[in-house]
Structures are given as structure tokens and as C-alpha cells.
Amino acid sequence: MGSKVLSLRVDGELLDRIRQHAAKRGMSVQDYVVRTLIREDFDERFQASVDETEKLGGRWPVT
Fold it and tell me: How far apart are CA 6 and CA 18, in angstroms?
């Protein structure tokens, strides 16, 4: 998979907070933002799968 460029204009205060979060994890701002977007995308897809399963009457096993 090739990479593409995405340019964002971000408020200075927000960028500082992002830098702090990234630094706490030993990550670059770019890596932190990409991982955050990937996680959000996964969460949305996972929730959609759960919703579809529930529509079909499926239940998670309760232990």
C-alpha cells in the first residue's frame, strides 16, 4: 500500500496537546495522529458489526 499526503490546518493549542500526547507515548505527531485515526475507524467498524449482529438476533455468549 502506498502512502499519500494529507495536510491539516490545526489550532496551535490543539497541536501542542497532540505533541504532548505523542511524546508521552514516544511517538511522532504523525504516527500518533495516524494511529488515532486507525483506532477510531476500527471502533466505528466494530460497533457497526455489533449493531448488525444484534439486528440479526445474535447475542454475545454470557459467561
Answer: 16
Query: What cell numbers appear for 53 in the block?
Result: 449482529
Give 1-63 as a 3 state SS string: CCCCCCCCCCCHHHHHHHHHHHHHCCCCHHHHHHHHHHHHHHHHHHHHHHHHHHHCCCCCCCC
The grid cell for 59 is: 447475542
- Single pTM value for the model: 0.64
Residues 3-45: pLDDT tens digits? 888 898 999 999 999 999 999 999 999 999 989 988 887 788 8
Closest-CA residue to 37 (of 4, 61, 60): 4
Judge whether 29 and 22 are in contact, CB under 8 Å.
yes
